[in-house]
Amino acid sequence: MPFEKYEFVPNGDYTEFTFLSQGPRGRIRKLVSYSKLNERMNGETLYNLSFGDIHDAWVRDEDMYRIRSNNNDRDKVLATVAFTALEFAVRHPDCKIFVRGSTPARTRLYQMGINANWGYISELFLLKGYRRGQFEAFRPGVNYEFFTAQRRT
After folding, report:
1. Quick check: is 2 in a domain?
2. CA dist., res. 139 & res. 144, Å (int)
3. InterPro entries this protein is in (predicted)?
């Protein structure tokens, strides 16, 4: 993908990635995490994609993902998250990535990013969206409650 992104650093098993957002609010540390969910889908392991700001002060996990840093680099941050998803999927090819924003507005934001880059993303990932109680092949322009992504092989 020919997109501007931040350099990121993975942990040892490529389930966490850190990077620095840079903008008018300064340098903000970010964390992208892929955590194994207890649920399985059709026998496949699901990993939840989550990301947010890292703060020096203690912040409850669920609050970390609700913070809006407004550093005027949204597209670069989302591109960076997408590249971590690709890196995670390369290292964990049998896993599906579960994606749902912390709010419906954030889920729509992620979908808008996917829609805008569908040509690239659809070549790399098989996406399914969940709506009306069932999964379907992801279609740009359709609003989903959540979606899954699995690397194409």
Report:
1. no
2. 9
3. DUF6934
